[in-house]
Every structure is written in structure tokens, then in C-alpha cells.
């Protein structure tokens, strides 16, 4: 190797720089591939945690709705018991005191809840209403 011909001689420093550059490129490629795999695993883990949190939230909502429905049913049952107690008490009070006049009074009072329906009253003996007037003739 002659010192006069610099074009044909490759210096040791150039070879080391080339090897170093090749190693850096290989390291960057491997590091990028490894980094992408780690990001992919991390992303899947985060997606799984988000889905688990969403499922737990939906479960909690369903439990809260079921508890609210149970409470509403308990309150409805209590209201029904109180209504039955009131009806039983009313029957007890009215027992023996129901007269045709009282039945007429109850019928007239019930007419207020009919709304826009037309009621035709036909007087009969003893001034009692015909309570069966709404039935149709069956043939």
C-alpha cells in the first residue's frame, strides 16, 4: 500500500466508522421492532383494563337498578297492604249499616270519576238506580 495513492487505500478509521454506522443502524432497527412490540403489548393491556372497568360499571348500574326496583316493589306492596287495611276497616264500619240510600249515595259518588262519559239515569221504584244498565243484550 502506498501512501501516494489515497484513492485506493481505505483507512482503518473509515472501516471502523462503517462498522459502527452499521451497528447503529442494526440497533435502531432492532430497537424500533422491540419498541413496537412493547407498545403493542401495553396497548392491549390498557384496552383490556378499559373493557374491564366498563364491564364493572355496567354491572354496578344493573345492581343499582335492581335495588331501586326492589325498593319500589316493597313500597308498592306496603301501599297495597295499607289500601287493603283501609278497605277492611271500611267494610267493618259499614257492616250492618248499608242501606239502599247509602248504596245510592255510593253510586252517585262514583259517577264523578266517569269523566266525559254520558250516564242516563232511569228512576225506578224506591228511587234506586239501575246498576246493570251498562250491560249489552247477549244473544
Helical coverage, percent range: 55-70%
* Annotation, overall tally of beta strands: 0
Helix count, per DSSP?
2
Average of per-residue pLDDT values = 80
Measure the end-to-end span.
130 Å
Count of discrete structural domains: 2
Radius of gyration: 47 Å
**Uncertain regions spanning at least 5 consecutive residues:** none
Q: Describe the global form.
A: rod-shaped
Order of helices and strands: HH
Beta-strand content = under 5%
Largest sheet: none
Explain what you see.
It is a single chain. The chain is an all-alpha fold and 139 residues long. The chain has 2 domains: 12-97; 98-130, no CATH class. Helix content is 68%, strand content 0%. It contains 2 helices and no strands. The chain has helices spanning 12-94, 100-111. The longest helix is centred in the middle third of the chain and has 83 residues, at 12-94. The mean pLDDT is 80.
What keywords describe this structure?
139 residues; mainly alpha; 2 domains; 68% helix
Brief overview:
The chain has 139 residues and is mainly α. The protein has helices at residues 12-94, 100-111. The chain has two domains: 12-97; 98-130, no CATH class.
Write the layout of secondary structure elements.
Layout: H1 12-94, H2 100-111
Amino acid at each position: 500500500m502506498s501512501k501516494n495513492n489515497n484513492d485506493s487505500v481505505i483507512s482503518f478509521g473509515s472501516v471502523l466508522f462503517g462498522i459502527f454506522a452499521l451497528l447503529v443502524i442494526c440497533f435502531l432497527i432492532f430497537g424500533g421492532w422491540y419498541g413496537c412490540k412493547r407498545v403493542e403489548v401495553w396497548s392491549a393491556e390498557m384496552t383490556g383494563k378499559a373493557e374491564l372497568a366498563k364491564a364493572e360499571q355496567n354491572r354496578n348500574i344493573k345492581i343499582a337498578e335492581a335495588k331501586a326496583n326492589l325498593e319500589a316493589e316493597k313500597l308498592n306492596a306496603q301501599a297495597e297492604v295499607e289500601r287493603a287495611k283501609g278497605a277492611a276497616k271500611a267494610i267493618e264500619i259499614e257492616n250492618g249499616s248499608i242501606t239502599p240510600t247509602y248504596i245510592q249515595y255510593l253510586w252517585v259518588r262514583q259517577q264523578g270519576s266517569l269523566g266525559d262519559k254520558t250516564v242516563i239515569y232511569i228512576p225506578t221504584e224506591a228511587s234506586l238506580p239501575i246498576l246493570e244498565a251498562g250491560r249489552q243484550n247477549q244473544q
